[in-house]
Amino acid sequence: MKPFMEIDGRKIGPDHPPYIIAELSANHNGDIENAFRIIEEAKKAGADAIKLQTYRADTITIDCDKEEFQIRGGLWDGRSLYDLYEWAHTPWEWHQALFAKAKEVGITIFSSPFDFTAVDLLEDLGAPAYKIASFELVDHALIARVAQTGKPMIMSTGMANQEEIAEAIAVAKANGCEQLVMLHCVSGYPAPADQYNLRTIPDLSERFDVLAGLSDHTIDNATAVTSVALGACLIEKHVTLDRNGGGPDDSFSLEPAELAQLCRDTKTAWASLGKVNYERTEAERGNVKFRRSLYVVADIKAGEIITAENVKSIRPGFGMAPKHHDAVMGKTAKADIERGTPLSWELLAD
Fold it and tell me: CB within 8 A of 101, min separation 6: which ones?
């Protein structure tokens, strides 16, 4: 496994702070000005990238009245697949303006393509990376087409079993993909935290020899922050201007202040992991003097015996270590020792 992946000069891997993707998805709610504002807010919040979804209703499904094309239950109950995607899609004619806006504010932008024509559009726009959505992980032809661009790839594993994940990775690598992050994902909207099984993240990385991250559909940041401790080097989260905005994905998306908190907390979590260390840290060094040590707690005359009444383990830490307590009991003082003196071997007769 490569130690890192790189998008627009930003290294992504276990030795680097988590890479945060703000998923714009359908949260523009049909208004390009909303999309522009989400891009601006993602940059202000500290996200590394903004991600689109590039499809049209007729590139992802067909307009059909048959029952299997209808959505029953959940957020989009009563809609057909075609109606949902017609409502939720990001118009292709917006893409150039959205890429330009991201460049203007200084944030990386790329997308999840859902067919070959989407890849062609994104290649024309100079997309620096690609994301394969969970539902498309079984579309080997799409994975192959994206891999053939030579760009870094991110693939989500929602709903996929081990065999399907292995097949998708094999297709990507066979078609030229050299930089890959696999995102552990639960494809529920929203997804309950107790179904996320985050311990899968290190197993995903080790089992398939890939970098691993998280596509998080829970409604707060706890799952994402926890994932960092388990090795997630990239985190993707839906972002909206208003969770109550009524759009397709608003209800399970972060608002800008929550995205900012995610960016801060995941970086803090990563920094706190550090390395295996049993030495004193810089923050501890000034406090060593406040540890316990052996002190004279009552005046001792020359020749007097050391007892538990005149020597005790107390703070501060300038005397002998408390582990020597039993060894000094019964010894005699070489000279007078004043109360409040740190005990040392030099003060005691052999």
Answer: 35, 36, 39, 40
Taking only the tens place, the pLDDT of each residue in 111-133 is 999 999 999 999 999 999 999 99
Cβ contact 64:54 at 8 Å: no
Q: What H or E segment, with its residue span, contains residue 110?
A: strand 108-113
Q: What is the dihedral of CA 38, 39, 45, 48, to 10 degrees?
A: 140
CA atoms within 13 A on the CB side of 59: 17
Judging by DSSP bridges, how do beta strands 293-296 and 311-314 pair with one another? antiparallel
Lookup: tokens for 131: 């994301």
Domains of the chain plus CATH, in order, are: 12-273 (3.20.20.70), 282-347 (3.90.1210.10)
- Could you read off the pLDDT of 178-225 as tens digits, one per residue? 999 999 999 998 999 999 999 999 999 999 999 999 999 999 999 999
**Cis peptide upstream of residue 128 (ω within 30 degrees of 0):** no
What is residue 290's predicted lDDT score, i.e. its pLDDT? Answer: 95
Is the pLDDT reported for residue 7 higher than 70?
yes
| pLDDT score of 184 | 98
Task: With H, G, I as helix, E, B as strand and everything else as coil, classify residue 82.
Answer: helix
49 and 109 Cβ atoms separated by less than 8 Å: yes
For residue 119, what are the contacts with CB-CB under 8 A and spacing of at least 6? 113, 130, 142, 145, 146, 149
Sign of the dihedral defined by the CA atoms of residues 43, 45, 48, 50, in that order: negative
DSSP secondary structure, 228-271, as one string:
HHTT--EEEEEB-S-TTS-SSSGGGSB-HHHHHHHHHHHHHHHH
Bridge partners for 87 per DSSP: none
Six-digit token pair at 87?
Answer: 């409502």
- 151/254 Cα distance (integer angstroms): 28
DSSP annotation string for 311-331? EEEESSSSSB-GGGHHHHTT-
Q: Residue 309: left if φ>0, alpha if ψ -120 to 50, beta else—which one?
A: alpha
Listed as own residue / partner, the contacts of 127-131 with beta carbons closer than 8 Å and 24 or more positions apart are 127/151, 128/7, 128/8, 128/152, 129/7, 129/153, 129/154, 130/154, 131/21, 131/51, 131/155, 131/156, 131/236
